[in-house]
Specification:
The chain has a seven-stranded parallel beta sheet, with helices on both faces. Strands 6-13 form a two-stranded parallel ribbon. It is an alpha/beta fold. Helix 3 (30-41) crosses helix 13. It starts with a helix and ends with a helix. The protein has helices at residues 3-7, 12-17, 30-41, 59-69, 80-84, 103-112, 129-148, 182-191, 195-200, 202-206, 212-225, 258-267, 287-303, 322-330, 353-377, 384-402, 411-418, 422-427, 437-452, 460-495, 501-510; strands at residues 21-25, 46-51, 87-91, 115-118, 155-159, 170-171, 233-238, 240-242, 273-275, 284-286, 310-313, 348-350, 407-408. The radius of gyration is 26 Å and the shape is globular. Belongs to the fatty acyl-CoA reductase family. InterPro entries: FAR, FAR_C, FAR_NAD-bd, NAD(P)-bd_dom_sf. One of its GO terms (cellular component) is peroxisome.
Length: 511
Amino acid sequence: MSLEEFNANKSPVKDFYHGKTVLLTGGSGFLGKLFIEKLIKCGVREILLLLRSKKGVSPEERLQALLKKEAVFVNYQQQPELYLDRLKVIEGDISRPGLAISNDDLDYVIKHTNIVLHSAADVRFDESMKESVETNVRGTDHLLNIAEKCANLEVFVYVSSAFSQCIKESVEEKFYTPNIDPLELIKMMENEPRLDELEAVSKKMVEPWPNTYSFTKALAEEVVRRRRDKMPIAIVRPSIVTSTYADPIVGWTDNFYGFNGVVSGAGTGVLRIFHIRDEYKADIIPADIVINGTLVAAHYAAKHPAEENVFNCTMDENHTTWGDIRNDCLSQKGVVAVKKSLWIPTYNTTRYYYVASFLQVFYHLIPAVFFDLVMRCRGEKPQILRLYRKVHRFSDVLRFFTNHQFQFATKRMRQVVDGMEIVDRHLFPCDMKSVVWSKFGVNHIRGCRVYLLGEPWETNEEALQIYRRRRLIHWCMLGVIYSMYVVVGLRLLEAAGVPDLRSFLGCTQFA
């Protein structure tokens, strides 16, 4: 939808954000960029972006680079002032005490903020306990301390995760009490002099959660819950966030996390075997459904502060399976190709862990050694084996979520969606029932190619030519391998007492 068309419509949700000042964390992340684009369309007065310096690059320089680089900022090239006039950098770090905000910036935030959108998080599932607690738990607590002081605050929104409660097979839209006091854990992390010893027992502390990410997300929800009587709050729990469905552009994404990594790895011929149950529900959700759903839920929570405003933003009302998604993606084999691929896509799945581990030797490790030898012979630095170490770590992280099935209640989210006016449904599409999964799969493949792998659509035909050559080589290699199997089989038959193939065939026919 164009900016002109969006501006031509008046709606309750859009009017709620119009002229407001929004404090946004995680603005340089995947969801954060989408929040920026949508909020600017809504005509907010100002977006206060909490950003830190990174690798010697100032927050202002990082913001400029983001605006120029990302295709999701669809109006920046023609109207840069539309963004620059409404974006104000607040230098800080969500993982540091007090968020490391200067006194002047803190005064500005407290004086002007109307809405807090907290989407920053450490999304690395295998991060240390200390770093996960500092970012996901303490950072949320310190942000709430600031929000308490904002005299004009209308709502505090925390973007959590549906898997914050993945220790339960059925997750309701309500608060759950964790088995550890989050504030006590923060104190422990800050005061414990022997952090190495603490990390050593962190796995036991995290159980039964599968990783520090989901564990600390659950603790952060408890931190938010404890402030319910001091400010209107909303918690939105998306499942595995993927590329956009349509808003503001089709198939946009900017990271290899989760499902994006599986699709990109399979499409480039890197990921060839994956441990997954194809018949299980695929808990994925398009990013624009999450963004629009969060903004709509925040509007609802601001109007109904007394309610328990926890919203599961998942696909349970319109689900698909991992197998269906796999088939939708494989339908693009020979239609979409990638120049920067290791080999042709040969993606296989199994529900058995030990089978997957065994096949990784033949599908991943042996080819990796071969490719590295070729690179050495060409005078290049071998890197494929190192790449597969990362792939296997990535697979280990995802294994829990692709081999367990969850049921997420969505009654409260459905109530909000059904209560939207028609114009808001048009401007803020967030109804999962409207998603056509086969269409999503095709667009997701193309989006990963263009936005993640950086290959413009115009180069697809050139990539297909490479794909066809490699496919021919692949078939020839299979022919050689299967011929070797036949030879070995004949040798075994001969050793077993069958004199030759002709007599073996004759015996078989007689039998």
